[in-house]
């Protein structure tokens, strides 16, 4: 399996990026949102990839982060959704937006993706709801830098998760609690601080 490709971005096409790795051009299918974030051709890129092998073709699907790749693999693990369907979903919404939709049962948002009907979206929600948790949405520490920043990010994520759980216990929904907590200031020092600020967005 090809875990990632790193090389010079040779070109960006409507559905894929061409990455020159040691003189070999790899065509990597990517979500539209990710394609729009690529640098100009000539720059180096690193794409986390999933290799799909069929009888008549081998296709590489690429993502800017491991997080994007992991949510993609969860989505295509749902029966009835292939790699192209997973790509369509992630072209319409970010991984966090997809997690929000799954946790809140928003089949309408997911079925907005081309080729994904309402029944398929409902099936995806049913199968993935237990595989998506608050920490996945809140924890951006993996995108941090040094060890100190990583630990700070984990601590902040832990407090935010506690705040979300407290809001859910008060009767608010998962999705609205997550959105409110994500809007709070990074200057909040305690769970209580986060709760006080988050409640302002819920009233």
TrEMBL record:
Give the location in the cell: Cytoplasm
What residue spans carry the region label Domain I? 1-64
Q: Which residues lie within the region annotated Domain III?
A: 157-203
Please give the superkingdom of this protein's source. Answer: Bacteria
Q: Which UniProt keywords apply?
A: Cytoplasm, DNA damage, DNA recombination, DNA repair, DNA-binding
Q: Which residues form the Holliday junction DNA helicase RuvA C-terminal domain?
A: 159-202
Please tell me where this protein is predominantly located. Answer: cytoplasm
* Domain (DNA helicase Holliday junction RuvA type) ranges: 1-62
Q: Does the keyword Cytoplasm apply?
A: yes
Cellular component aspect of the GO annotation: cytoplasm; Holliday junction helicase complex; Holliday junction resolvase complex
What's an example of a GO molecular-function annotation for this chain? four-way junction helicase activity
Q: What CDD domains does the database record attribute to this sequence?
A: UBA_RuvA_C (cd14332)
Asked whether the keyword Transcription is assigned, the reply is: no
**One example of a Gene Ontology biological process annotation:** DNA repair
Entry similarity comment: Belongs to the RuvA family.
Q: How does it assemble?
A: Homotetramer. Forms an RuvA(8)-RuvB(12)-Holliday junction (HJ) complex. HJ DNA is sandwiched between 2 RuvA tetramers; dsDNA enters through RuvA and exits via RuvB. An RuvB hexamer assembles on each DNA strand where it exits the tetramer. Each RuvB hexamer is contacted by two RuvA subunits (via domain III) on 2 adjacent RuvB subunits; this complex drives branch migration. In the full resolvosome a probable DNA-RuvA(4)-RuvB(12)-RuvC(2) complex forms which resolves the HJ.
Q: What does this protein do?
A: The RuvA-RuvB-RuvC complex processes Holliday junction (HJ) DNA during genetic recombination and DNA repair, while the RuvA-RuvB complex plays an important role in the rescue of blocked DNA replication forks via replication fork reversal (RFR). RuvA specifically binds to HJ cruciform DNA, conferring on it an open structure. The RuvB hexamer acts as an ATP-dependent pump, pulling dsDNA into and through the RuvAB complex. HJ branch migration allows RuvC to scan DNA until it finds its consensus sequence, where it cleaves and resolves the cruciform DNA.
Domain comment text? Has three domains with a flexible linker between the domains II and III and assumes an 'L' shape. Domain III is highly mobile and contacts RuvB.
This chain belongs to the protein called Holliday junction branch migration complex subunit RuvA
């Amino acid at each position: 399996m090809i875990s990632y490709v790193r090389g010079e971005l040779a070109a960006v096409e409507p559905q894929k990026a061409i990455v020159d790795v040691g003189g070999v051009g790899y065509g990597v299918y990517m979500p539209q949102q990710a394609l729009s974030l690529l640098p100009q051709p000539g720059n180096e890129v690193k794409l986390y990839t999933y290799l799909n092998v069929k009888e008549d073709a081998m296709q590489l699907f690429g993502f800017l982060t491991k997080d994007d790749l992991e949510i993609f693999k969860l989505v295509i693990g749902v029966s009835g959704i292939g790699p192209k369907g997973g790509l369509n979903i992630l072209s319409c919404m970010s991984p966090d937006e997809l997690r929000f939709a799954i946790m809140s049962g928003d089949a309408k948002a997911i079925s907005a993706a081309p080729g994904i009907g309402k029944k398929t979206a409902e099936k995806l929600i049913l199968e993935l709801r237990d595989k998506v948790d608050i920490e996945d949405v809140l924890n951006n520490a993996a995108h941090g830098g040094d060890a100190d920043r990583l630990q700070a990010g984990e601590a902040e994520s832990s407090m935010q998760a506690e705040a979300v759980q407290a809001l859910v216990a008060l009767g608010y929904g998962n999705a609205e609690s997550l959105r409110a907590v994500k809007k709070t200031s990074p200057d909040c020092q305690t769970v209580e601080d986060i709760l006080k600020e988050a409640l302002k967005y819920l009233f």
